[in-house]
Amino acid sequence: MIVANRLPVDRVTDARGRSTWRRSPGGLVSAIEPVMRAHDGVWIGWPGGTQKFKPFKVDGLDLVPLAMSAEEIEEHYEGFSNGTLWPLYHDVVAKPEFHREWWDTYVRVNRRFAERAAELAAEGATVWVHDYQLQLVPQMLRELRPDLRIGFYLHIPFPPAELFQQLPWRRQILEGLLGADLVGFQLPGAAQNFIRLVRQRVGHKTHRDLVYLPDGRTVRAAAFPISIDAGGFAELAASDAVAERAAAIREALGNPRRIFLGIDRLDYTKGIYARLRAFGELISDGALTVEDAVFVQVAVPSRERVEHYRNLRDDIERLVGRINGDLGRIGRPAVSYLHTSYPREEMAALYRAADIMVVTPYRDGMNLVAKEYVACRTDEDGALVLSEFAGAADELRQAWLVNPYDMNGMKAALLEAYHAEPKELSRRMRAMRKQIAQHDVKAWADSFMTELEDDAAHSHSKTVRPATRS
Ligand code: GDG
């Protein structure tokens, strides 16, 4: 059983006004789908909106929708999840807001997810809970159903103690997560942050990646870096249709020497503003010209009802207007800005058309866009400029790694990537492609599930308690 904030489908209305469900794009669903099919699994999640639906099937997936009221969307999803936890877990890039009513609603919604899961899970079933919106579910579920194996995976960073400490409900969140047998993070550092906090704040004994609970149970915290369907992306990018579309994109941009590309949800953690500023400065400095280079920035609409996000959009759009007004020529904008989302084929064509992919978040759990770009470069060319603060930087070591707070450093990396020789590009790209081919999303899902099932089977026999435990 999968328990996640969102169901993997969107409600769409066709030309004749009829509504149906469509599978949402994304690697997570395709990674988990085979596991779900093999085990007759169900997926519990919010279908979006406030409408109530009965359980249904899409492409053979069993889906159980859990409705939210308008108040719950505001306080659980937009409030506590995206106004408190999201900024707190991303290095407080923005200031987290702490509101007691948001917390109360977070607890209530988590309880509803746990109760529904407890009602539907088969005897001894394995339940995989996902992400920061549902951190209390593991503990709540375990209380209701001690027979279950419970795994939890956090898709975003887990902050160091110095920041997590700010949270008025820090202990409840840690205890919530400790309901799981296995807690998975993107990076080893996040798992270590968690273990340290459990020791300091909850007072349990820990040893390396294990937590020893007073009731004899052990919980393991470890890194499982998420990935993409690398083969699927490569195949799509190599198709004739995508190749033609990529050529058409270059043509429409006026066949510049180099195309820079950014694709991000419009989020303040992604560093869109600073990267566009760096690019604009390169043009005003005379290091690049609008005849030779263009920056295509796709900003995918996100969390548009949250004020912070609306302000960010205004800031970015004002900057794009200023850069193009000051530096562009007729038919030659410096930045080609698109506030929209695209089908997967168009994403692949953009990746294929771009010479330099620019991924510069201030903090990011992983960043799948960086991996998708690499997967789509089947000719082993193209440059990746990547923030050191994206989880992906741990694996994609051959990218041009940058500190997104360092404007001059970022400018230098963009220029180096712009001028890099084909040999240098292919050396780097080949190494990165090898990494993601070996570590794709299937390998990720398999390793988590294997570890979870194995862990549960041995949780009482395999753990030798450390001598220090009383
Ligand atoms: C969170 C964490 C972590 C984007 N625009 C379109 C589109 N996308 C797809 C991309 C990519 C995904 O959405 C975005 O994933 P990211 O990893 O880049 O970022 P977040 O949304 O912040 O994801 C992150 C991730 O969870 C997984 O654990 O890596 O760190 O923040 O797959 O391709 N897809 C389509 N049209 C678009 O316009 N079809």
TrEMBL record:
GO MF entries: alpha,alpha-trehalose-phosphate synthase (UDP-forming) activity; trehalose-phosphatase activity
Entry keywords, A to Z: Glycosyltransferase, Transferase
Enzyme Commission code(s) on record: 2.4.1.15
Alphabetized Pfam families for the sequence: Glyco_transf_20
Alphabetical list of SUPFAM superfamilies matching this protein: UDP-Glycosyltransferase/glycogen phosphorylase
A GO term from the CC aspect: cytosol
GO terms for biological process, alphabetical: trehalose biosynthetic process
Enzyme class: transferase
Protein family (similarity comment): Belongs to the glycosyltransferase 20 family.
Record-linked PANTHER family: BCDNA.GH08860, TREHALOSE-6-PHOSPHATE SYNTHASE
The protein's name: Alpha,alpha-trehalose-phosphate synthase [UDP-forming]
Organism of origin: Nocardioides simplex
